[in-house]
Amino acid sequence: MVSNRSSVRTAMEESLQIQRLEEAPSARDFESRIESTNVPAVFNGCVKDWKAFSKWNPSNGGLDYLQERVGLCVVEAMLSSSAPVFYGDLRSHERVPLPFSAFIGLCKQRMRHSEDGSGACFESEQRGLLEPVSEYDREPYEDAPQQIYLAQVPIMNTENEERVQLESLREDIQTPVFLEDKVLASTNLWMNNAQARSSTHYDPHHNLLCIVSGCKQVVLWPPSASAMLYPMPIYGEASNHSSIPLENPDFSNYPRAQCLMEYSQKVILHAGDALFIPEGWFHQVDSDDLTIAVNFWWRSNIVSNMSEHMDAYYLRIILRRLTDKEMNRVLPKSSLAEMENKKKHTCVVLNNGGVDQNDNDLDQACERKDLKGKELEQRTMSHELEPLAIHALHELVSLVHHRVNAAELRQPVQSTSTTDSAASVKDEFTKVVRANSFSLEDDPVAKIIWALQPCTFRNVFLAMVKNFPRTLEALILHLLSPVGAEVLTCKFEEMDQQITEEDRNRFYQVFYGAFDDQFAAMDAILNGKELFALQAYKNVLDKYLGVDWGGPKPGV
């Protein structure tokens, strides 16, 4: 069966749903309809015609058969104290040489104790050792045989033929017809004597996992969900593994993982079934007792066709795309209905927030700042602006003057130099801005601007130019955070799309004309915008490459 583990059906795109096919496709159909989509697929009964399907079956003398065929061979086994969970990181397990016959002996003991009802208890667990096995007597696995897992033991390997340990089993399996045209990188045996779980990881190759005996449950996530899986650092040895511990995940350390299962799909594979796992898809595999599987790995067309001299370009394009996506996540595009709700909410908040008191405070602040002493209602052209624009204008001017006053109050009394005072105020502004640089919810200036429709936005800033030029200057040069700069330029772009070129030119001429140094204003906006993009870029490196740069991470 295939079931969607998500409680929110819309969280999983229809195009990523796993198919289950009753008949194996042709090579052409597989490549055009399945492999090209990079979405997993299950093929029921795909390998039931293999010799291995009947000859390797433990319930039908398969263990004796395997011992006779390759019993003298020494294979490399995974030994892990964290069993039944087997982590891919080399720090969490060790690779040990193991006679294949010794592993078959462990499997036979498991079968005997399962049949006589004694459960998972091994003779070795009762006696503390296995019967002597040639010179390998008293090896580390003897006291805890359930900690042994035959993982990725080569049956065929085109890249390293010397590593092939089970080549004699090759005649018992056959390449599925839809893979006959592929250049296979390797074919491997996977075999466990006790229940086992692999850590969540992705493979750098396409993978066909074939169940010869037993049962496996596979939970899969698309590459787009990798940020929620906290991949290990890209420069690390286990960079294709998730860093989230499976036994007891701590969501305080991995907050993005809380909605992880909403993006997962679960597949149950029985003997004879095969699962196509495309490259980059994270998967976690649970295996029943005495499960035997074979997998095929091959390079995808995408990777095969990537020219090495283009790698740097591909990297820059992908990082830029992910950075843009991260920026859009912090500043999601709003629908018209959402914008109307924002309008209503803003009006309610402003009406209930003491606008009259703000007016009085602003009158006093404006007098101190030599803003010509006119009444606030006259300066804001209330007879020309819509109510929302007036409220937004009041709020913006209020915020600036509140920060100015707060900054001035924090200055030492003995400071008498105007230049020093201005520099100190600017430093105080910078501290405030940096405290909430990248989160829209924590930046009141950005929130006010973000809620404005393009026409209202234009009118608000034209009113600021005419009536509060020094306040506008302080806002742009000192109070504009990175997210505020990104919001401002987004609104510029929205406005540009709705007015004529002549009106655009006139607006920017008036807007930048309010500044004593127009280039300083442009630099402040562009520098803030680039800082916002830089933080988004760092978030991308953290989420997808496991590179932690520190600093604020909005909504991670």
UniProtKB/TrEMBL annotation:
The superkingdom listed in its UniProt entry is Eukaryota
The protein's matches in Pfam families, at most eight in alphabetical order, are given as: Cupin_8 (PF13621)
Where would one find the signal peptide in this protein?
Answer: none
The family database entries (InterPro entries) matched by this protein are listed as: Cupin_8 (IPR041667), JmjC_dom (IPR003347)
Q: Which SMART domains match?
A: JmjC (SM00558)
- Domain called JmjC: residue spans: 142-313
Give the protein family.
Belongs to the JARID1 histone demethylase family.
Q: What is this protein called?
A: PREDICTED: cupin
Species this protein is from: Prunus dulcis
